[in-house]
Amino acid sequence: MVEFSSYKRNTIIEAIKQENLDILVVGGGITGAGIALDATTRGLNVAVIEMQDFAAGTSSKSTKLVHGGLRYLQQFEIKLVAEVGKERAIVYENGPHVTKPEWMMLPFHKGGNFGPLSTSVGLKVYDFLAGVKKGERRQMLNPKEAINKEPLINQNDLKGAGYYVEYKTDDARLTIEVLKKAIEQGAHAVNYMKAVNLLYDESGKVCGIKTHDEISGELHEIHAKKIVSATGPWLDELREIDHSKKGKTLHLTKGVHLVFSQKDFPLKQAIYFDSPDGRMIFAIPRQKKVYVGTTDTYYKADVIDPKTTVEDRDYVINTINSMFPSLRINKDHVESSWAGVRALFSDGNDEKPGEISRKDEIFISESGLISMAGGKLTGYRKMAEEAVNTVLKELKHEDLLYDAPSQTRHLPISGGDVGGSEGFKIFKQEKLKEGMDLGLSKDTVTRLIDLYGSNISILFNIYQESIENEADIDPLVLAELKYGLNYELVYKPVDFFVRRTSALFFDIDWVKQHKQAVINYMAYH
User: Fold this and answer.
1) Which of 36, 59, 63, 326 is the most buried (most CB within 10 A)?
2) Beta strands 46-49 and 188-190: pairing type?
């Protein structure tokens, strides 16, 4: 069995170095995880290295929607809407524990971006292009119906609303579950392993990566037949080392989201609305919180740790108060926030951030370095399929014959072995009873099932053992932490609190309560 335990990190590194790799993927976000899964299920030997934690970049800082790209209809990107709309359904069926349908309301006001006719036609086209199932097709609401759905929306000059389905997700957990499935299928992956240089053979073809272990400080050389860069905002760094940075240029844009308590922002219905400057904004209830975003501004500062500025915060607050004026939201209501950087590629330099295409592209340099650029969370599986198809074509050119089609269209990700979305409903009821029999509350068990899916039985077993443990830590927190350490390569407390549980964003009081106990446990284990 391939290891994915933090206790076996050195073993994982040695396995990667010794393996006769077909593909070495640089970047452990959703794109890299998807490529690893697609490649390993086609019989290729693959490894992933990530300089931070998995999903620590863009893949944990999105709007947390696996959505069909409704706004791309405005840009006439018909093919993109059709593709990601269909992919959305595939992502849902393969991991229904981590992706959920969410009815979204799109209110339209006099003088706004959308009107009754354009919204009706747009959503109908959207349903058709995205292959939306019958029970989730759009509805049109009159002003009274819209207000009944969400009384907080601005009622002045309200002309009605569109009502359609999006899919909400936990982007970091989706990434981890895809990567864990790749591990189960034979891939290797390690975090905190930074690519610092490229290795070349005698003919000038790239054949490996020199890496720096950010934990031990050691340097390693990892060789592979093909190197695939799925590094997002850092894509041009490897292209510069490779002397192949030319053609389309990288444009970084920043997206910021703010999180509020539902006590201050009692939103009951997810809303997609236009801000005063015309940008479309999401306001989404989640657990006992509401998060709102996102901004879209050019960004040139620290890519590893982008910050929410006062200007970002005030922009989002102003958009909230334009759509929900009765709330009188101010900076003191903000509980937490996150800022992410998007990596977009374009020929020109004069577009507005929102006008640059989100379509994925593949660049192949003269040395053979393959770079995966652009794309969206929703389309990760299709992007990975295209990337591995490209690798296979390149390998054929070298007389290394591989010709297996992608296997991921109907392949459940880790935690998704529940019989699809319909099977998950039955699974959830069974596990709900099982968890409550252990003394856990209904809300707690529901949260755990949504986090871990079909892996919940492992967590329950660890929890039963943890109840008898005399450690100075809550037994359920200990169970989740042990699961993360042993099965999800959690190495630092921030990995656990941000990317394995999302607690820092949506349950900050829980983090404050258990932070020291978690740090102490990890320090001595």
Assistant:
1) 36
2) parallel
- What is the value of pTM for the model shown? 0.94
Q: Following DSSP, what letter does each residue of 218-287 receive, concatenated? A: -EEEEEEEEEEE--GGGHHHHHHHTT---SSEEEEEEEEEEEEETTTS---SEEEEE-TTS-EEEEEEET
Model pLDDT for residues 122-148, shown as the tens digit of each residue: 788 778 877 778 888 889 999 999 999
Domain span including residue 439 = 420-524
Q: CA dist 491 to 8, 14, 19, 525, Å?
A: 11, 17, 23, 11
3-state secondary structure at position 122: helix
In this structure, is residue 154 part of a structural domain? Answer: no
Beta bridge partners of 198: 209
Q: Which of 170, 204, 193, 161 is CA-nearest to residue 65?
A: 170
pLDDT tens for residues 493-517? 999 999 999 999 999 999 999 999 9
In this structure, the dihedral spanned by the alpha carbons of residues 525, 505, 507 and 104, taken in order and rounded to 10 degrees, is -140
Please report how many Cα atoms fall inside a 13 Å half-sphere around the Cα of residue 108, on the Cβ side. 18
Residue 78 lies in a domain: no
**Same domain flag for 446 and 388:** no
pLDDT digits (tens, 9 = 90+) for 428-478: 999 999 999 999 999 999 999 999 999 999 999 999 988 877 668 899 999
Give 414's DSSP letter: T
- Domain of residue 455, CATH code: 1.10.8.870
Before 297, cis peptide (omega within 30)? no
> Which CATH number goes with the domain that contains 332?
3.30.9.10
| Cα–Cα distance for residue pair 47/28, rounded to 1 Å | 10
